[in-house]
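Exam revision sheet. Question 4 asks you to relate a sequence to its structure. Input first:
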Amino acid sequence: MSYININACRKENSKIIALSKITLAPLALLNILINTNFNQNIKSLIIIAFTFYLVGDILLLSKKKLLFTLGLSSFLLGHIVFIFIFNLFNKSYLTLIVAFIILLYPEIQMFRLTKSAKKLKTPMRIYSLFMAIFIAFSTTTYNILLIFATSIFTLSDSFIAKNTCSNIKKYNESHIMITYSIALIALSLSMVILNY
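Answer key, C-alpha cells:
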C-alpha cells in the first residue's frame, strides 16, 4: 500500500493518494493485533494511538489551516499515547535522561526553524518537544527498530514543518510519504518484537 501511495504522489493522483494514505495506519495496526498477544490494556492503547494516526491522516488530506492543525494535533495525541506505551516497557530511566539531553539539539533547531512561522510557531514548538520525548521514551525499551521508527517519524514530521514554515515547499509529498510509510512499518514491526 505504501508503494501505491508513493507512486500516486509522484503521478499527483489525489484520489489514490487519499485512499492509500488512509489505509496505512489501519494496516500497521492490523499487523500488531494479529502478531502479538499483548494484554487488553496495551492493545487498547495501541488501538487508540493508531486511531489518532488515522484521524490525523484524514485531516491532513485537507489544505485548510484549521484541519491541518487538527491533523497535527491528532498525530501528537497518538504520539503521546505511544509515550505511555513505551513507558510500560521501560528498562532504564537513566537511558531516558541521556536520550532527552541528546535530543535537546534537534529541539533547538526546531526553535530556529519556526522563527519565520507566524501562526503555527507555538503549536509546532510544542509538537517538536513531544517528538523529542517520543524518541527519548523509545530508547528506554532498548528496541533498536523502535528507536529507528520514532526517529523516522520525527524526520517525516520535520519535512512537514519545513514546508509549513517556509514560503517555498522544500519537500514534496512523496518525501513525506516515504518517511511516514517507513516509520509506520518500523513501528508496527517493533511492537511485534517488543511482544516477545
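Marking note for examiners. The chain has one domain: 2-195.
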